[in-house]
Write a structure and sequence with these properties.
Elements (H helix, E strand, L loop, with lengths): L15 H7 L74 H21 L3 E3 L14 E8 L7 H7 L9 E9 L5 E4 L5 E4 L3 E4 L1 H20 L5 E5 L1 H11 L2 E3 L5 E3 L4 E3 L4 E3 L1 H9 L8 H20 L1 H5 L1 H12 L2 E4 L4 H10 L5 E4 L2 E4 L2 E7 L4 H10 L16
Parallel strand pairs: 1-12, 2-7, 4-13
Antiparallel strand pairs: 2-3, 3-4, 5-6, 7-12, 8-11, 9-10, 14-15
Length: about 400
């Protein structure tokens, strides 16, 4: 390096300032010179060694050219955490809610029939005198009367009937339940039978003259079957119950037009309302066998009601369930011995598969417009019901006539 001119303000060669500045081999710098402080725990470095600058933390490096801060005085910041997602509120069903709901459903299904059972008319159907002994199974006597006091004004006008308490019957059915199965046996109203105190009469005259007790006694004397319970259905029970279900299905085998019954329907299966179902079950002036065909249609309507009652929709629809119980309770009468359990059994017996028969019969020798129990075939049917055994197919026909 060329010598620098003297007097330029720079230290002269050979002076301590010159050696300290340019690294010359000279004595130690004076005491007031700036000295390197060795790092604790490390050996001191030579003055002429390359100095190593401490590495700045990456986080502390600025983008604007600012000198790094003292690492000993900086506080390490935690890495940023992701923001938690906002959870949507969803209702949670506690385990105790489901048993509570089931309990309320059971209470509803039991409470409604119990309430309407208190609204049903009770009648004394116990006959006097000697009766058949108790028998296996259960026998219900179902009677269809002209009871119309529960019809509204529009329904009475349509049927052309007045408010009556029920003094006539054109439906007499024995419903048997037991180990031998369920059997619906119709007894035609024109059947000649021994009516207690009145001699030989049409069987429906027993109901007109003596009500339920006399009719029960007449049926028991004719068949030998012990009647356990009595159920009377009025006009309104058919109309209002069918309407409570929203209609039932009937399947006439021919076109039927009967002005006296106010019936006009076509052949084939169809949904009908209460008024039409009642007219269908009462008509007796269209088919050849008259009353014998009518009792078959009566059983058809009763079976259709049973099928509707058994539908799950009846129990899961509160309005339908309420309407059904209300309609049934307002138009039936039962014997005083029936309790809510008996009513439930009767309702179950009306549903599902059952044999349907008309009492085996023949034209009466004294009057071709009347019938009598067939002495050859009827006892077999009566005996099967009495013993709670299987009904012979030969004795169980829709019209009661031999096949």
């Amino acid at each position: 390096m060329a010598d620098r001119p003297q007097g330029s303000g720079m230290p002269e060669k050979g002076t301590p300032e010159y050696d300290w500045l340019y690294g010359g081999k000279s004595q130690a710098p004076p005491g007031d010179a700036t000295q390197q402080v060795p790092t604790q725990g490390q050996p001191p470095q030579g003055a002429d060694e390359t100095r190593v600058m401490p590495a700045a933390r990456r986080e502390a490096r600025g983008s604007g050219g600012q000198p790094p801060s003292d690492p000993r005085s900086s506080v390490a910041m935690p890495p940023p955490q992701p923001r938690p997602k906002k959870r949507r509120w969803r209702p949670r069903l506690r385990l105790g809610f489901i048993p509570l709901l089931l309990l309320l459903v059971v209470v509803y299904l039991v409470a409604i029939p119990l309430y309407y059972w208190t609204q049903i008319d009770k009648v004394d159907a116990e006959p006097g005198g000697s009766r058949p002994d108790d028998q296996p199974g259960t026998n219900y006597l179902i009677v269809g009367s002209d009871k119309a006091d529960d019809l509204n004004a529009e329904q009475r006008k349509e049927l052309d009937t007045t408010e009556r308490g029920g003094t006539n019957t054109d439906t007499i059915i024995v419903l048997h339940t037991g180990s031998g199965g369920r059997t619906l046996m119709s007894i035609p109203r024109d059947t000649l039978a021994e009516v207690p105190g009145d001699g030989t009469q049409m069987i429906n005259s027993a109901f007109a003259s003596g009500g339920a007790p006399k009719l029960v006694a007449t049926v028991e004397k004719l068949t030998g079957i012990h009647i356990d319970h009595y159920v009377e259905l009025g006009f309104g029970s058919v109309i209002n119950t069918v309407d409570a279900f929203g209609g039932v299905e009937i399947c006439p085998k021919q076109d039927m037009k009967d002005p006296l019954a106010r019936l006009d329907i076509k052949k084939g299966c169809q949904e009908v309302d209460g008024l039409t179902a009642l007219a269908y079950s009462r008509s007796r002036h269209v088919t050849a066998l008259s009353d014998l065909d009518r009792v078959a249609r009566q059983r058809e309507v009763i079976s259709a009601l049973g099928d509707e009652a058994l539908s799950p929709w009846t129990f899961v629809n509160p309005l339908r369930y309420w309407s059904l119980n209300k309609a049934a309770s307002g138009a039936i009468r039962i014997d005083e011995g029936m309790n809510p359990v008996d009513i439930g059994r009767f309702a179950l017996a009306m549903t599902g598969d059952s044999q349907t028969c008309t009492m085996p019969n023949l034209a009466a020798p004294s009057d071709p417009n009347r019938i009598i129990a067939d002495p050859d075939r009827a006892p077999a049917l009566f005996k099967a019901l009495i013993n709670d055994s299987t009904v012979p197919k030969r004795a169980c026909t829709p019209t009661g006539r031999a096949r």
